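HUMAN: Mind sharing a backbone?

ASSISTANT:
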Amino acid sequence: MLDKNKTLRKLYLAAGLLFLALGALGVFIPVLPTTPFLLLAAAMFMRSSERLYLWLTNHQVLGPFIRNYRLYHAVPLYSKITALFFLYLTIGSSVVFFVNNWWLRGILVIVAVAVSWHIIKLKTLTPEMLAEIRMREAASSLTMDADTTPASD
């Protein structure tokens, strides 16, 4: 589904790279949402670069965020726990050690509560969902192996 307009493809590519960078940062910075940025990057790459789209969706670390969300609109429990841990670590240390204004501390606490609420409300991947994802990936790799195996004459 590549866009035929070269200028639009370049814009989609630039946007995809920006969203990819934000999504990758979101893995380490809990206030940045990883999955939405990666979904946007995938959508932009789908319209601009098939190679980057396939790279992103099949990436060992980033690919599962996209696949899990596209299939179930859900994230793994460990992702939720990790995000909440780093959220409170960064915002908590900011409130205690770096921010002196009471109103700014209040805003940080409100942000922490809002982001926590969002993370908790996300659907959590169940073991059954993960098993189905593994089955799909195994079937997909078997299909790809069959497609690349030369026919015997």
